[in-house]
C-alpha cells in the first residue's frame, strides 16, 4: 500500500500541502481541471521551484482578483455538495470545511450555520482546501500518517484583530490530536493546515516504508530558525502487507477497593461509550491486597472522555495512558442464512484475501433462544453456512 508521511517540522498550511503534492508529482494541470468545476472565478494557480535555507521544493501560489470574500459555512458546503467534483475529493473537502466551521462556531459561540468565514472563505483558501483534497486523491496514497503538529506562541493578525497563537480556531480543530511545542513566535500551523491534517491523516510514529519519493511544499515565509517547508515522504509498506494499522490509546489503572458489581457496570459503560476493548486482570497489590488491573483501549480522540468516565464511575484516582499502534484485519459485516434464520457474522480480510468468517455472539444467542436450540449447535450450523459463503467468495475472486 502506498503511504505518505507528513513531516511537519515547520508546520503545515493549505498552500504548503498543495506545493508538496505537486512536488511529489501530482500535475498542477490535473488539480486545476477539477477546481474548474467549482463556481469560483477570479484566480490563477502557479507553481515554481523555490528554496528555503538551501532546500528546494515547490511553491504553489494563488493569484486572486476577488476583494469581497465573506462566505458562510452553509454557502461553501452547498457549493461543494452540488458541484461535479469527484465524490471522494468533494466529501473530503466538505469534511475539512465542516471541521473548520465547527471550530469557528465554538470559538465565537454561534451555531454552525451562522459561521461566516473570512480568511477561510477567501478564494485562495477554497482553492487550497479543495485543491489539497483533489491532489491527495490523484496521489493515490492509501494511508496518510502525520507527525504531531508544532504549535507556536505570540500573536497573529486576522480579520477579527490580533489573536494569540496558536489561533483559537486551530486549537479547537486539534482537540484530541497530538501537538508539540514548536519553539517559535511565528504561526506554523494555520487553521486550514490543521483541518487538512486532522481530516486526511492519522497521527502516528514514522511508518515502516520502502522509501520511493521525498517532496517539499514551500511556505510563503522565510523563517529565521528553520526552513519553511512541509516534507512528505512517500513509499510502500515494508511489512505487514494487507494489514490495517491505526493508533489507539491504552488507559490503565489498578484498583483494590472496588466491588465486582461496580467493575461490571464500569465495563458496560466503557463499551457503550465507545471503548474498543475493556479487560480486567488480577493483581497482588500493596498491603497484600488482591486487586484488579483495568485496561481499556480507546480511540485517541476519546481518551480524555473515557478517562473521566473511569474516574467518576470507579474508585480510581489516576489513569495511566500510553499511545500504541494496532495491526488489524479488515472487517466487514455480513449475514449468513441458516435453517433457523439469518445470523450476523464478521468477514475478516488480509488485504483482499478473506481469511475467515466469525459468527457474532449476540446474533447466535438470539437465534438459539428463538429456536430453542443449544448455543453450541447454533454455532456449528452458522460455521457451516459461513464456510459455504467463504467458498463462494473465493470462487468470485478467481
Describe this structure in words.
This is Putative nickel insertion protein. GO terms for molecular function: lyase activity; nickel cation binding. The chain starts with a strand and ends with a helix. It has helices spanning 14-23, 28-35, 73-81, 87-108, 123-139, 168-173, 191-200, 260-272, 303-313, 361-371, 375-397; strands spanning 2-7, 43-52, 55-64, 71-72, 116-117, 143-146, 149-151, 155-158, 161-164, 179-181, 202-203, 209-218, 229-237, 244-255, 277-284, 290-299, 320-328, 330-338, 341-350, 353-359. The protein is globular, with a radius of gyration of 25 Å. It has 398 residues and is α+β, with helices and mostly antiparallel strands. The protein has a 5-stranded mixed beta sheet. A 4-stranded antiparallel beta sheet has the order 15-16-14-17, with helices on one face. A 3-stranded antiparallel beta sheet has the order 18-19-20, sandwiched between helices.
Q: How is this structure best summarized?
A:
By secondary structure, the protein is α+β, with helices and mostly antiparallel strands. It has helices spanning 14-23, 28-35, 73-81, 87-108, 123-139, 168-173, 191-200, 260-272, 303-313, 361-371, 375-397; strands spanning 2-7, 43-52, 55-64, 71-72, 116-117, 143-146, 149-151, 155-158, 161-164, 179-181, 202-203, 209-218, 229-237, 244-255, 277-284, 290-299, 320-328, 330-338, 341-350, 353-359. The two termini are 21 Å apart.
Amino acid at each position: 500500500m502506498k503511504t505518505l508521511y507528513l513531516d511537519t517540522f515547520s508546520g503545515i498550511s493549505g498552500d504548503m500541502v498543495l506545493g508538496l503534492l505537486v512536488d511529489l508529482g501530482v500535475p498542477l494541470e490535473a488539480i486545476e481541471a477539477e477546481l474548474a468545476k467549482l463556481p469560483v472565478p477570479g484566480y490563477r494557480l502557479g507553481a515554481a521551484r523555490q528554496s528555503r535555507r538551501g532546500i528546494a521544493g515547490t511553491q504553489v501560489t494563488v493569484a486572486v482578483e476577488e476583494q469581497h470574500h465573506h462566505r458562510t459555512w452553509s454557502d461553501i458546503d452547498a457549493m461543494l455538495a452540488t458541484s461535479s467534483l469527484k465524490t471522494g475529493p468533494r466529501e473530503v473537502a466538505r469534511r475539512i470545511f465542516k471541521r473548520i466551521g465547527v471550530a469557528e462556531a465554538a470559538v465565537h459561540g454561534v451555531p454552525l450555520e451562522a459561521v461566516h468565514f473570512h480568511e477561510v472563505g477567501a478564494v485562495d483558501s477554497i482553492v487550497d482546501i479543495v485543491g489539497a483534497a483533489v491532489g491527495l486523491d490523484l496521489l493515490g496514497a492509501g494511508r496518510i500518517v502525520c507527525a504531531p503538529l508544532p504549535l507556536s506562541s505570540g500573536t497573529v493578525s486576522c480579520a477579527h484583530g490580533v489573536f494569540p497563537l496558536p489561533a483559537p480556531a486551530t486549537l479547537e480543530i486539534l482537540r484530541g490530536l497530538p501537538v508539540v511545542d514548536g519553539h517559535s513566535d511565528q504561526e506554523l500551523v494555520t487553521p486550514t493546515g490543521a483541518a487538512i491534517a486532522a481530516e486526511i491523516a492519522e497521527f502516528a510514529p514514522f511508518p515502516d516504508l520502502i522509501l520511493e519519493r521525498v517532496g517539499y511544499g514551500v511556505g510563503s515565509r522565510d523563517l529565521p530558525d528553520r526552513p519553511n517547508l512541509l516534507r512528505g515522504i512517500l513509499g510502500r509498506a515494508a511489512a505487514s502487507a494487507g494489514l490495517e494499522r491505526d493508533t489507539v490509546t491504552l488507559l490503565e489503572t489498578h484498583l483494590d477497593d472496588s466491588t465486582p458489581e461496580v467493575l461490571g457496570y464500569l465495563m458496560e459503560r466503557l463499551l457503550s461509550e465507545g471503548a474498543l476493548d475493556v479487560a480486567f486482570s488480577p493483581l497482588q497489590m500493596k498491603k497484600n491486597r488482591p486487586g484488579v488491573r483495568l485496561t481499556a483501549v480507546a480511540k485517541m480522540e476519546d481518551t480524555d472522555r473515557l478517562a473521566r468516565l473511569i474516574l467518576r464511575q470507579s474508585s480510581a484516582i489516576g489513569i495511566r495512558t500510553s499511545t500504541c499502534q494496532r495491526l488489524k484485519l479488515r472487517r466487514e459485516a455480513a449475514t449468513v442464512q441458516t435453517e433457523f434464520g439469518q445470523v450476523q457474522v464478521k468477514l475478516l480480510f488480509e488485504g483482499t484475501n478473506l481469511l475467515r468468517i466469525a459468527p457474532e455472539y449476540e446474533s447466535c444467542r438470539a437465534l438459539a433462544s428463538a429456536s430453542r436450540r443449544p448455543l453450541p449447535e447454533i454455532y456449528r450450523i452458522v460455521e457451516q453456512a459461513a464456510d459455504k459463503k467463504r467458498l463462494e467468495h473465493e470462487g468470485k475472486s478467481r
